[in-house]
Design brief:
By secondary structure, the chain is α/β, with parallel strands linked by helices. 34% of the residues lie in helices and 28% in strands.
């Protein structure tokens, strides 16, 4: 039986009087690649925030490796987020004053890794994503597709078990979209689980499972 990494049980989320998420039951198994689709305002980003521990649910449970977040300390939740999750967003969210090398190295610096080890890890990831020639450049000197590859490098430099991606190709043309999706697919083949929000049917076609959100509920699940 496959290992369940993330799970929600009857999750509700509201910010005012109206619920953004309603009775969400969801599982992410080890090695899965799940796409989340749905119209604007359906709760996709809120759902990502809840399962990635960035936001608290109003009702129900979010479980990480079988343990409810409500039963874990703030420190253990933060440790899980830092050690196990990699985040990729529609806007690369790179730090403009830093070179691409320093952007990728940021998680390692925060973890107080040895300087030599940081350099080794950054160059290894850069080689894997074919961005070695971009390391000494600044984000503003790079195209959107190049910036997104740097952002993916930053997300995986700590070797996370799960990538959370919110519209990672939303600002890219079709060629760069295919490049980014090929990278994510290869990472998934290497054992990284992926949850990806998208409006693009082409992007969703790379995943092994599709969950469709409508009005805050999972209205349909399709497995390849």
């Amino acid at each position: 039986m496959s290992e369940i990494i993330l799970e929600t049980q009857n999750v509700f989320k509201r910010y005012t009087k109206d619920y953004v998420l309603k009775e969400i039951n969801f599982q992410l198994l080890k090695g899965e690649f799940i796409s989340i689709m749905g119209p604007s305002g359906s709760g996709k980003t809120t759902f990502l925030n809840c399962i990635s521990t960035l936001d608290e649910v109003s009702k129900g449970k979010v479980l990480i490796n079988g343990k409810s977040l409500g039963q874990q300390s703030t420190a253990s939740i933060a440790q899980f987020r830092y050690e196990s999750l990699g985040f990729v967003f529609q806007n690369a969210n790179l730090l403009e004053p830093l070179t691409n090398f320093d952007n990728i190295a940021t998680p390692l610096v925060l973890a107080k890794e040895d300087t030599k080890l940081i350099k080794e890890k950054v160059y290894k990831i850069a080689q894997q994503l074919n961005i070695e020639e971009l390391l000494e450049k600044y984000p503003g000197q790079c195209s959107g597709g190049q910036q997104q590859r740097v952002a993916i490098a930053r997300a995986i430099v700590n070797n996370p078990s799960v990538i959370i991606a919110d519209e990672p190709t939303g600002n890219l043309d079709s060629e760069n979209t295919r490049t980014i999706m090929k990278i994510l697919t290869d990472l998934n083949k290497d054992g990284i689980s992926i949850i990806l929000v998208t409006h693009d049917n082409l992007v969703a076609s790379f995943s092994s499972k599709l969950c469709y959100l409508k009005d805050g509920e999972i209205s349909q699940t399709i497995e390849r």
